[in-house]
Amino acid sequence: MSRHLRIWLPLAAMLAIGLWGLAALRLLPWPEWPALPFTPDDMDLQQILLAFGLMPRGVIALLAGAALGLSGAILQAVLRNPVADPTTLGISSGAQLALVLATILAPDLLAVGRWPVAMAGAGLAAGLVLMIGARRNFAPVTMVIAGMLVGMTASAIATAITLAQGHYLLSLVIWNGGALVQQDWSGVRSLALVVAGGGLFAALLSRPLHVLSLGAEGAAGLGMNVALVRLMAAGLAVWLAATVSAELGLIAFVGLAAPALVRTAGARGIKPLLIWSPVVGALILSVCDGLVLTIAGVTGEMFPTGALTGLFGGPLLLWLLPRLRGSTPPGTERAEGPAPRLAYPRRILSGLTVLLAVAAFMLIWIGRVPDGWAVLDWESLTAFLPMRLPRLIAAASAGAALALAGAMLQRLTANPLASPEVLGVSGGATLGYSAAVFAFAAPTSLALGAGAMIGAALALALVTIFVSHRDMPAERVLLAGISVSALAASVLSAIMATGSPQSWQILGWLSGSSAGIGMAAAVSLAVVAVAVWAATLAMRRWLAVLPLGTGVAAGLGLPLALARLSLILLAGIATGAATMLVGPLSFVGLMAPHMARRMGLARAGDHVTGAALIGALLMLAADFGARMAGFPYELPLGLFASLIGAPWLIWLMMRSKS
Amino acid sequence: MTATLFQIENLAVDVPGRRLLDDISLTLPAGQVIALIGHNGSGKSTLLKVLARQIPALGRTELEGRALQDWSARDYARRLAFLPQHTPPAEGMNTRELVSLGRYPWHGAMGRFGPQDHDAVEQAMTECGMGAFADQLVDTMSGGERQRAWLAMMVAQQAGTLLLDEPISALDIAHQVEVLTLVRRMCHAQNRNAVIVLHEVNMAARFCDHIVALKGGKLAMQGSPDELMREEALQAIYGLPMQVLTRPDGQKVAIPA
């Protein structure tokens, strides 16, 4: 155990106990505390509130934090990816979707309790991910990508439904935020059982996981059934996380931060990771809940603690990352099977270009009218053109810009999970947008755009500080980005929980819309996209060398700091510009580069160009779908992009098994 | 006396809680194939990485009379090519593309990939016997072929000095001899320098002109292969009694006694 842990753990524990004790003493002075055993009949109201509200709440914070920390540690060990956490496998989103569906379609189900519904949703989502993973021997990269895809599809559907059925929003949002309010000890009992069972099971798995840290081949060579161990470990992690999700709601970030903190504090090997991650997770959640309790007198009981974890945990991780030593786990293993490589990439690139042109043409020409579909005649075309052209241009440019940013970041970090959404740029833009919404009584679109841009720039600056640090490994940069995203997500959850009119405006923007865009804005976005594309092509040699790692890149005399800085900057500009239009939820930046690669575009120049074309196509299709599916109402653009892209990418991943 | 390639004075490398290299002062001659040998953890790979400017070190180190940190990244890469022990996976790259990366120090990020560059790449592939593999994906080749592909990348870099970190540890005996013969031929025919980290003491004695031995982060000995191939010298380096036999052609071979 390292010195850092020895100093910080007791401090955090004291803080957690102190905060809880403060809240408890404020509720009821010490001499009046009820004696064990608690019998509600003999107690007054304050005593009941303490014994059956505050006390189980304090315990459940510890238990839930421990469960999430353990779940995250197992997932990171088995997927061998430092950015894996319970949300990565789609667990939380699956639970969320199930709850949203149940609330709207079958409210009776919820009378039994949220737990079975959420558990079923989480199980289904994780099952789907495991099924995809099974085809590749549960290889880490495939699992994480599949998990993110399933998760984003589920939350896209959930958000779309939430938007359509606004009056149920508040209760869902509170569940989403992960409130820890308790009315009795039943939650503690069931969660304690799960944590105890999970801990036991994890202890049994610790040796196989330790062997697995050699990599799949080494482990198989030692006679281990790699697929079985991976399945069992992933299953255990899902069970732990899904239980917490069902019991308390979405508590983001603890599952990611706890193992990351333990590792940066210098713990090496699986066993310390499995032991200390639950402890750290429990402390993180307890401290956060203690802070909520301390502030609760002001803002009311219902403020969700889950919304706060990112708010405190995010900056904490950011602050710790550069200070602590220690290694992140080895890079992801390449068990996915090589992506195909085309001999003549020009053909598919020109094919994509033609497709893009045809699609744009068709989308202008064909439209939906109240009683069916119509091909426009010349007269209506000239009438519609000024309305349709700007949004087409804007959608395609935004898609291309996001895809370019994603391709750059994936090559820069040599991590297939990097994308503008993951690097926190979108999160920053969201924060900026929200700030603008709240700062002005009647914000103009200019003010909102500026807000998003400034937010994106700030998030980017933060991540850039990390990048410019000497020898900062790419995984830590990713972690920094995720911290920013988590921070933004918590602020958003907190805003949503207020249920104010402004929160509706933000929620609408989150899913993106191209309806309000003017010609000038569309053209300037197109100019940005083309300029970024040109700049990316100019840097394609860096992009070819960087995936080989810093050793080779430095050996070839590549100016590492400069290359990183300029690529991050370029990616940030592209993301900031595009996010203003489509909202931060699109995930085009994650999907499009993968699609380009899976189609066989291997060389850096072809790859980024193909990704840009695919991104533009995706957004065009999404724009069309968003306009047509719910005619005459418009559905969110970013959601549609996720809905179209995610299944396509899953299909591409399944297909190219060699 | 021959010219000096590296001049090392009071070099030390620390990681938290441990000193990997301790007070090493050393002169590496130019125009020779130099072997870095020693037991596991003796610091030979660390020393090579310091020379490749991959990790910072205390003390003063000069390449061709100029301190390491005074070289610009590209100038350094034109002088010196480094092959890491574990070559990273080259996702989706064929051999020609990998070898072309070696031209980066010459054309930079924006410069034209001119006829000179094409010639250098073709020549490097021919020299390393990779001509037939030009369009094959690097990740699909065998270990020996992949090693030669990476060697070809270093050759295309046209650096005067090659630094190789255990280039033969994953190869069979025939490929070991092949790779070392290739390196030796390149050095002697084209007047290049090479510094190679080697495990195999007999290979070091047979293919290298100058031996530097490390032990526990300190310099244990340096000299010619003949000076190395003595029983007491080997015992001092590896801490194991060794027997030195002489082959009919006069070449010496060491085996554990």
Quick recap of the structure?
The complex is a heterodimer of chains A (658) and B (257). Chain A has 658 residues and is an all-alpha fold. Chain A has helices spanning 3-27, 45-79, 91-105, 107-112, 114-134, 140-164, 169-177, 186-212, 216-221, 226-248, 254-264, 270-299, 306-320, 345-365, 378-413, 425-439, 445-468, 474-498, 501-510, 519-538, 540-545, 550-555, 560-582, 588-598, 604-628, 637-655; strands spanning 366-369, 372-375.
Average per-residue pLDDT of chain B, rounded, comes to: 87
Quote the beta fraction of chain B: 25-35%
Helix content of chain A: over 70%
State the shape of chain A: globular
* Mean residue pLDDT of chain A: 78
Which strand order do you get reading across the main beta sheet of chain A? Answer: 1-2
* CATH-defined architecture of the largest domain in chain A: Orthogonal Bundle
Counted by DSSP, the helix tally of chain B is 10
Strand order of the largest sheet of chain B: 6-7-8-3-9-10
- How would a textbook summarize the main sheet of chain B? 6 strands, mixed
What proportion strand of chain A? under 5%
Give the CATH level 1 class of chain B.
Alpha Beta
Question: In the residues of chain B, how many domains can be counted?
Answer: 1
Q: Which CATH architecture of chain B would you pick?
A: 3-Layer(aba) Sandwich
Task: Let me know the CATH homologous superfamily of the largest domain in chain A.
Answer: ABC transporter involved in vitamin B12 uptake, BtuC
- Tell me the name of the CATH class of the largest domain in chain A: Mainly Alpha
- Largest β sheet strand count, sense and barrel closure of chain A: 2 strands, antiparallel
Would you identify the CATH H-level superfamily of chain B? P-loop containing nucleotide triphosphate hydrolases
CATH domain topology of chain B: Rossmann fold
GO molecular function (chain A): transmembrane transporter activity
Keywords (chain A): Cell membrane, Membrane, Transmembrane, Transmembrane helix, Transport
Subcellular location (chain A): Cell membrane
Main location (chain A): membrane
